[in-house]
Amino acid sequence: MGDGVVPGLEVDRGIPSRLDRVPEAAATAEGHGYDGCWTGEIDHDPFLPLALASEHTTRLEIGTSIAVAFARNPMTVANIGWDLQAYSGGRFILGLGTQIRPHVEKRFSMPWSHPVRRMREFVTALHEIWSCWHDGAPLRFEGDFYTHTIMTPMFVPEPHPHGIPKIFIAAVGEAMTGMCGEVADGLLAHAFTTRRYLDQVTAPALLAGMERAGRSRNSFQVSCPVFVVTGQTAEDMDTAAVATRKQLAFYGSTPAYRGVLDLHGWGDLHTELHRLSRQGEWDVMGTLIDDDVLAAFTVVAPLDRVAAKLRERCDGVIDRVLPAFPAGVPDAAVSAVLRELRGLPAAAERSLP
């Protein structure tokens, strides 16, 4: 690749979900020139922070990455999505994921079955509900998992001119990825993803789904977090590498992500990581992530090479990147990387829209 920015590449970041931290984090992200910010469903609600993020920004796209679909039903999510789309002036992206069965059943006390079929139906139901509200179409949705057939005028929210939200779906396996290509507006790739996996598994499955639905890749976005190991000194980079190895070991121990390791011939690594995780040996697990594994999952580069390495990772497959910088990297250094990714001169940060 040359030194120009990847055409169409957007750069996003995560923001805290704790409400008192959201206004400053969102405003700072917009000031640095990020294109979007995302919240996750971990220890806080994923939607509430986005109302604040919207209020304290003017152009930043806001989204959930992810909200657990199966912890809710399409009607409640449709209401939240409608309101955030209206309040943000059309900047909301609804990012949905399935979570895993034990969490859905034992943490959220909700049913789990046929995740790909259920997610497809969830998205279809959302579109039917929004069509009812936006176009006045009768609500007559009857599926295998969800039924929505009552919508009297009292329960129709006020109209707004911003259209319906985009829907992104988190996907790793081929079946979910293909379904995403059929019905969604974007795909949320997992951080535990390599460029090889994107090229050989994600992209073919996604394009096959689009072909089945007669859709174009040009109207679709792939969003992907990318671990970044960098720093101002060699010691900083070593510290960042240790922390990242631990994160990768945690993900690598999870059976749902074994397929990524299998593609590289590292299936035995998953077996050992999973065994150690059941014993709580988290520090030991990190030492099993060697330099080859680290390089496959991570951009490892000094600060002045991070932007080029990120472009190389994204070119041709990732449309929105969330670079995960190590703690301690100065804001000025992050801003410099971001300016280079956006193809902006050094002083451009002060004049960003």
Automatic annotation (TrEMBL):
<dbReference type="GO" id="GO:0016705">
    <property type="term" value="F:oxidoreductase activity, acting on paired donors, with incorporation or reduction of molecular oxygen"/>
</dbReference>
<dbReference type="Pfam" id="PF00296">
    <property type="entry name" value="Bac_luciferase"/>
</dbReference>
<dbReference type="InterPro" id="IPR011251">
    <property type="entry name" value="Luciferase-like_dom"/>
</dbReference>
<feature type="domain" description="Luciferase-like">
    <location>
        <begin position="17"/>
        <end position="317"/>
    </location>
</feature>
<dbReference type="InterPro" id="IPR019919">
    <property type="entry name" value="Lucif-like_OxRdtase_MSMEG_2256"/>
</dbReference>
<dbReference type="InterPro" id="IPR036661">
    <property type="entry name" value="Luciferase-like_sf"/>
</dbReference>
<protein>
    <submittedName>
        <fullName>LLM class F420-dependent oxidoreductase</fullName>
    </submittedName>
</protein>
<dbReference type="InterPro" id="IPR050564">
    <property type="entry name" value="F420-G6PD/mer"/>
</dbReference>
